[in-house]
Amino acid sequence: MEYSLFTKLAAEFFGTAILMIFGNGSVANVELKNTKGHHAGWLNIAMGYGFGVMFPVLMFGAVSGAHINPAMTLAQAINGMFPWNEVLPYIIAQLLGAALGQFIVYLTYYPHYKDTDDAEAILATFCTTDADNKKLNYFLNEMFGTLVLVFGALCCLMDPWGVKDPAAAAIVVGFIVWGLVTSMGGPTGPGLNPARDLMPRVLHAILPIPSKGTSRWNEAWIPVVAPIVGAIVGAWLFKAFFA
Fold first, then answer.
1. Were both Cys, which of 33, 52, 77, 110 would link to 22 (CB 3.0–4.6 Å)?
2. Where are the transmembrane segments (predicted)?
3. What region does 80 belong to: left with phi over 0, alpha with psi -120 to 50, or beta?
4. Whole-angstrom Cα distance, residue 156 to residue 187?
């Protein structure tokens, strides 16, 4: 069944919002003071992001492809796997969805943002940073992480077994994200998605949060550009060897 562009955009909007609620919501639960999950650990965050990707792909994969990531949309278009006339609408829907999802996280954790005086912990609930404060490492981690994500997701969703059983493929994609956060997530978070980093960073800059510190705009281009580069290479590898 072919859905209208409006329906596809709604799927991308709500799918990206769900990604943010599960993903950055899990970070807020771990990092902010006096939550039930305070200091629950990295696996809690990895699960949040894994489920945050798995559920939208299950819900909307058959509607819009559930890109929920501008890097995935651009990578597929550049490699001839997605129509260019839908790229900008998809990205706008993803950016707006990311903003909504992050704002919901802010609202639900509002008392805990007020209780938290650690600026780094607060920033972590919005966007990524490099643990070693090295821009090159930041770029490489986000690039290679997104490369693996896009390559793995396309292999799952577009290979014959995934086309035959899209629900199973969506579940495996969720586990890919879960595994990536546990394995390659240490240096940066990770972001792996320009919308997931950029729009929350904007909200971090404008929302009235005590002790929030700087939004670190000097490095904000990295989790936007690096995932796009990695996604393009990942999609090219899939198309060259397995499409």
1. 52
2. 9-30, 42-66, 87-109, 143-161, 168-186, 220-242
3. left
4. 26
